[in-house]
Amino acid sequence: MNANLDGRRVQSGGKVRARDADILSMNSTLSAHRCRNTALGLVLGLVAGSALAQIAPRHYQADFETADWRVEAGSRSCALSHEVPGFGTVRFVQHWAEPMRFQVRVPMAVSDYSRVSIHSTPAPWQHDGGARDIGSVRVASAMQPLDLQGGAVRTLLHELEQGRFTRLDWQPEQAAAEPLVVTVPAVRLRNALPEFQRCLAGVMQLDFMPTGEYSVSFDSNSTRLSYLARRALEPAIRRYKASRGGVARIVVAGHTDSSGAAWANEKVSLARARAVRDYLTRRGIPAGRIEIRGYGERWQLDPDNPAGNRRATVWLVEK
After folding, report:
1. Where are the beta strands (DSSP E) in the chain?
2. Per-residue model confidence as pLDDT tens digits over 154-198
3. 270 torsion bin: left (phi>0), alpha (psi -120 to 50), beta (else)
4. What is the side-by-side strand order in the sheet with 113-121?
5. Residue 53: helix, strand or coil by DSSP?
6. What is the spatial distance between Cα 14 and Cα 75, in angstroms, rounded to a whole number?
7. CA angle 318, 95, 262 (to 5 degrees)
8. CA distance 242 to 182
9. Are 58 and 70 in contact (CB under 8 A)?
10. What confidence tens digit (pLDDT) does each residue in 189-233 have?
11. CA atoms of 230 and 152, how far apart (whole Å)
């Protein structure tokens, strides 16, 4: 009887071990399937990522036959614009007493793009080098997504004057979005340049962006600061001192009316700028922070009002 009981135990133990072996085999098979599925998922993910990275950009550019540039001339502003069909308008804009700007205007707000890379590229018929990197700037979600100022604007205009093209590469915020490439050709630009340059000659141009502007008047043929002129400078002095170093420099420009010889007016305008600088230094502003310029009879505020052109302008420029 004990022998039969032991036999049944041996037989039962064998069945348990066989069942455990089957379970281990099933687990091994499931693990293998999971590994294959994981590997397949990784491969598919890499393929999909590669496909997204290779999304072809959408191109916008005017045909050479229809490409054109237009000038909008005003008494205190000038604009040189080019229309990009299906996209919008690019333009160089000069407002009175501001730096020149390069702007992009679109009919609908741009919201899916974060940055624009700006390049100067040779025209198809040019063979004098490749693309030149001008810079990369953030864009705004607005109908004027790009508003560039500074030295890069002058560089862009100069490159176009040399017959090179401007290329704007719009970088999407999401990897799956479609990139944009906007090309601005120099075709027929030289036809519009003379009119644009004539307009610029009558608009005051600055190479900096002022954060504050103040003006004082002078008597005819005088370079002496009156009591009222000194009082008019006090707000500029207070703002400079309150900035605690935030105002990096002060630019003072003298002006005259158009009576008399141009060379004499240049000297008078510079003397007026010196008079303002000397007063500012007596009021505690370091002379090394003040830059003076003499503009003579250029850039008349009002040709019909000579008294308004006998002036000095003070600009505060932050860092």
Report:
1. 58-60, 70-73, 77-84, 88-95, 101-105, 113-121, 132-138, 146-149, 165-172, 180-184, 212-217, 247-254, 290-294, 311-318
2. 999 999 999 999 999 999 888 777 899 999 999 999 999 999 999
3. alpha
4. 58-60, 180-184, 165-172, 113-121, 132-138
5. helix
6. 104
7. 95
8. 45
9. no
10. 999 999 999 999 889 888 888 999 999 999 999 999 999 999 999
11. 38
Question: At residue 31, what are phi and psi to the nearest 5 degrees?
Answer: -65, -40
Give the pairing type, strands 165-172 and 146-149: unpaired
Structure tokens at 84: 């990009």
Locate tokens 């120099």: which residue? 186
How many whole angstroms separate alpha carbon 106 and alpha carbon 104? 7
Written as one letter, the residue type at 243 is: S
- Describe the crossing of helices 151-161 and 189-201 by its angle, rounded to 10 degrees: 140
Specify whether the CB–CB gap between 235 and 293 falls below 8 A.
no
CA gap 128, 126 in Å, rounded: 6
DSSP helix/strand/coil, 196: helix
Residues 6+ apart with CB under 8 A from 52: 175, 176
Close Cβ partners of 30 (under 8 Å, ≥ 6 residues apart)? none
